[in-house]
């Protein structure tokens, strides 16, 4: 039986970004296509093979991850903060929805947007590089856990943010550096000195590595390690979000 | 008799140290049109936020139709509709979308929403705005939209937090008549306001909150009888300093004087006395509303 309150919230969250598809779905695809063409096709010919694959193919999983992480994060962060700012979150909080349903509803929007953006980038990659997926099921799992995890981070950011500026602090100062140090455009083994020894503590490395294994069949860590780490990070982030939401941090006195 | 709302010893202190409610207890009977009166900062909205589970109380108990939100959170939420003080809908959605989502949150199936939306919009004279984005509505329309939204799931208890603030007289009258009609059909309504006239016209019972405490709770008649003083300024054609005046007048200037009306001194009596003294009343001004006067009295009582 369909749970009408939960379905309504899920529908609203998905409709929210689908209505603005020119702003929410197309830009990540354009920027990723540009990355693929400029870094992959133009610079890639000079760089040569990385981990045994051509550079254009090598950067594709990282770009898919970049697109999914940013899209899922932005969706929940802006949606939750927007609801909080307009006070329309009160409408959801007084409605007969359990806390877990509110969380699922918001995450659903982030997951859907992240998966759609990632799939579109993947589609462009397939067209440009004629790639064949090495492990499709593993790819689906990686996409799902990545978007869930970063949608949860975005929702946390939206909950705790007190101004619009706070929405951009986390992605600008923490998320983007971690993504760019997470091996999206290069093999992390080529990082210099301290960064190389520190990179194993960067969770994004495992998300990118898992995507690379799923799409290309090559990876720095074992597929089992990647699976374990991304699953644990996902469970931890969603549990922490649930804890904060139940406590009402940032939106309830 | 069954209580629609039963509140016992409710206290709330905010994180900034403000004590919003202090041992508040009150009962609202099923079918009542109940006024929750008090000036700004009295604790009315805090109380409503606790009833609707937007905020948590530090101590005390709330029961809605015999159910506690602590143990029956979802069941209690289904029975309550809220019209908050501030506009809190998504301004970028249409009127229809706002109402449809709200109904959905309360489990109203999609097939039943269209007819419900149409009937509520028709009754609130908003049918023509069904497909208009909320941000393009006037203030009065937005207020009515909030009432429409709160009714989408047919609640048993409707909480109205100053629903006519900033609304013009005509729309206020229409809203009052609509609310009265809903109450006559059996809906229990709690109305917070600082307009005593609004409460007097609509409600049969009332509580007065002041500084987070209940200062009065009982029937509306009793409230009006107990606290019925009103300060009025009379403006005369004559120079009142040169004319014999009834003694209860306090002269303000050459053409005006103040008087306090109460249960022994009605407006009619004052007019009669003026006529007997050959005074012609040009106009009158209400200086202090009865609610303000009531609250002043209550504060004085507290000091005593």
Please name the CATH architecture of the largest domain in chain B.
3-Layer(aba) Sandwich
| Whole-angstrom Rg of chain A | 18 Å
Strand content of chain B: 25-35%
Taking the sheet with the most strands of chain A, its summary is: 2 strands, antiparallel
Could you report the average pLDDT of chain A, rounded to the nearest whole number?
93
Describe the structure.
The complex is a heterodimer of chains A (253) and B (304). Chain A is mainly α and 253 residues long. Chain A has one domain (4-247). Chain A is built from 11 helices and 2 strands, in the order αααββαααααααα. Chain A has a two-stranded antiparallel ribbon with strand order 1-2. Chain A starts with a helix and ends in a 6-residue tail after the last helix. Chain B has 2 domains: 3-226, Rossmann fold; 230-303, Alpha-Beta Plaits (2-Layer Sandwich). The longest helix of chain B is centred in the middle third of the chain and has 16 residues, at 169-184. Chain B has a 6-stranded mixed beta sheet with strand order 5-6-7-3-8-9, sandwiched between helices. Chain B is built from 10 helices and 13 strands. Chain B has helices at 44-51, 73-79, 95-105, 110-123, 139-151, 169-184, 196-202, 220-226, 267-276, 290-303, and strands spanning 3-13, 19-29, 33-37, 59-64, 80-83, 157-161, 188-193, 205-210, 213-219, 230-236, 250-253, 256-261, 281-288. In chain B, a hairpin with a 2-residue loop joins strand 8 (205-210) and strand 9 (213-219). Chain B is an alpha/beta fold and 304 residues long. Chain A binds chain B through residues 4-5, 7-9, 11-12, 82-83, 86-88, 90-98, 248, 252-253, and chain B through 14-15, 49, 52-56, 73-75, 77-78, 80, 82, 84, 86-91, 101-102, 104-110, 149.
